[in-house]
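Q: Got a minute? One more chain.
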Amino acid sequence: MFNTIAEKVRGFLLEPVETFGKSRTDEPGALLAYFVALLLINAVFSAIVTAAFVSLVPFPAGFATGVPLPALVFFAVLAGGFILTLVFAAWVHLWVYIFGGRKGIMQTAAAIIYGQTPRLLLGWIPFIGFLFLLWSLVLNILGIRELQELSTMKAILVMAVAVLIPLILIFLLAAYLLVGSAGVTSVRHVVAVPALHL
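A: Always. Here it is, folded:
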């Protein structure tokens, strides 16, 4: 199994189009094994980086929960990565279907999971990890194009819509919270000033 996973990793990094083509008939079990293996790698290295950061910038390593921060990061990356990737795959499949993809949700899940190879393997590297996220987005587009048999433009549109809508919503929520927080601070200041003269 290790050899198969290593071979697939090499394929998705160096020959993604050909490797996606060979992955059309992958069983769900093989896809899950690949995903869990790479997610474990990402969780382990994220925890190591966190441990190094904690040793350089001391702060309560037990954090608020009594659990060492690296262990907390390990489990958060593992559980969060698993859940968020599956939710994201379902979200992307909605747009795949809208844009005409009819090969099934498993093909979309395979495109997303296999496309995450660079991010899962190398996204934990400080300062440059975002470059591997961008690489993964490109691979996701290629995966959707190949596995759902959509045009390149439709695959780009699928990923653009699937990524931009959550980002816009997060931005709007952050702006709303920021404005709300500023409003509460202003009200407190206005109330506090007359109190000084009493």
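A: The chain has one domain: 2-196.
Q: Perfect, thanks.
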